[in-house]
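As a warm-up, study this chain.
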Amino acid sequence: MKDVLALLFAAVMLVACQTSTVVKDVHMASDTAYGPDVMAYYAVFTSLSAQPFYSTTVGYGFKTRYVGPSKSMISQAWSYGKQLQFTGGLSTKVPCYLLPCSPTREDTGVVSMDEADFVAAATKGFDFELAGKAGKIVGRIPAHAFRRVLDLKSTMKLPRCPVTCSTAAKPNRLPSGKEVFDQAKAESDREVETDAAGEIPL
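Now compare it with the structure written out below.
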């Protein structure tokens, strides 16, 4: 369930590049605050841009957009020894309109962050590394991009967490498959007990 929700969120986010604003999604019942899209790494034939965000459904993180001569095959994200959750997005070939030109690929993804790291990044910036079969790329996101997200978040109407909410300390945590199954089974058992206690209609 967690992987499905993460992939759905990534697919929605990666459709188009958003400017620094709050985007409402009535279908997924989520509000997302986007910071500015910044250049995290740049070389002659390679670039990596990143855009921090906060979502009321999945928490904190940043989008990535890699452009280079070949597929990046990125599958991991790291920051000073700490592995971050990385969800791959689209991998497409960039059209060549003027000849001669070299083949160019564009790969997108989403890196999840916890609240403490995000808040710290708003003060000192964030250094990270994306790694995959094709190699590694090191990037840095400036502090102002994260501060902008927190400023926008302060204007959002955030959902209230129930007293029994067990994910308050883990904003990026989504229900596991077992938790969803157990909850559905418990609700089904309650329905059976209710039917057994009631009268059978003629």
